[in-house]
């Protein structure tokens, strides 16, 4: 039996760093664990670090898109960071667009994307004081 992929919490963001090749069971377990973690901590963002991933197949590509969809349904955005050029090329060749998944070259940039999106969402949801008095 393989080990579970750790899910770390950084404020209201969950970080998943994939350090090994994933088999089908690992991917399904990660999806379950991540969905539960988003709900448990009320995360507004998920960062998936694939810096160590050298090769992807269509299953892993679909897994990234599925995780993003799950997160969106649970009110969290997903950013994939650290994608190597060979991985990007493979995803394009496989015809996988990863709709709904933002990407960034580094963890720092990925966290900034989520922070800015959260701030923008929070700002849009507030009512200005003048409007509240009317």
SSE topology sketch:
Elements: E1 7-10, E2 13-17, H1 24-41, E3 45-49, H2 58-73, E4 77-81, H3 85-93, E5 102-104, H4 107-124, H5 129-133
Parallel strand pairs: 2-3, 3-4, 4-5
Antiparallel strand pairs: 1-2
Helix pairs in contact: 1-2
Architecture overview:
The protein has 134 residues and is an alpha/beta fold. It has helices spanning 24-41, 58-73, 85-93, 107-124, 129-133, and strands at 7-10, 13-17, 45-49, 77-81, 102-104. A hairpin with a 2-residue loop joins strand 1 and strand 2. Helix 1 packs parallel to helix 2. It is globular and about 40 Å long.
Helix-strand pattern: EEHEHEHEHH
Helix count from the secondary structure assignment = 5
Which stretches of 5+ consecutive residues score pLDDT under 50? 126-134
Taken from the alpha-carbon principal axes, the silhouette is globular
In round numbers, the mean pLDDT is: 85
Q: Ends: how far apart?
A: 62 Å
Q: Radius of gyration, Cα only, in angstroms?
A: 16 Å
Major sheet: order of its strands?
1-2-3-4-5
Structural class: alpha/beta
Share of residues in strands? 15-25%
How many DSSP-defined strands? 5
Q: Portion of residues in helices?
A: 40-55%
Explain briefly what this protein structure is.
The chain is α/β, with parallel strands linked by helices and 134 residues long. Helix content is 49%, strand content 16%.
Which short descriptors sum up this protein?
134 residues, alpha/beta, 5-stranded mixed beta sheet, disordered C terminus
